[in-house]
Amino acid sequence: MHPSRCYSRQPHSSIEHQHGVAVIDEKNRRIEVRDKALRNLPQVVIQNRLRLEHLNLDGNLLTENALNMPVFTRLKSLSLQRNKIRDISRLLEFLKARCPHLESLSLVGNPGWPLSQRGLIDKRYSMFRKQTECFLPHLLYIDSLPTDRELHSRAGTSIDSDGEGSSSIVTVDSEEL
């Protein structure tokens, strides 16, 4: 499993507080709600959506429908590893409409997201990554790995990115494989 790139803890960069189920930095820009068996977004996340830049919801019971959420104007990174997301197309539609500046997304461990085997990236996983990158125009990292857009920007070249993602991802349960 890939470590989440959705936010990095920098020692001494901010003070974190426990707020019930969430760990929040002092400026409410980073919230972590991990392994709490949540089926819906906690109120603290919704209340801080206009300031929030990094959100980690790993290890919960969230589905794509739980992410039909209000607009998060500043959200740059979202980690949803090990949840119950099956319909990736629907999730991406929600994220495109509600997280306009999303740069990093992590979906490893969800039933609708293909697994990379032993660090190898197979064709199906590559297809999902490419379609996700096309659909979300600002995305630079998927599952902590740089997108083609990020790799090209590092190399000083540009690629076409109109941001109009017309392709959809076919959802297949991992049990069907």
UniProtKB/TrEMBL annotation:
Which residue windows does the record flag with biased composition (Low complexity)? 158-169
Q: Using the UniProt annotation, give all residue ranges assigned to the region (Disordered).
A: 153-177
- Give the transmembrane region(s): none
**InterPro entries in the record:** Leu-rich_rpt (IPR001611), LRMDA (IPR043313), LRR_dom_sf (IPR032675)
SUPFAM superfamilies named in the record: L domain-like
Q: What is this protein called?
A: Uncharacterized protein
Write down the species. Answer: Pristionchus mayeri
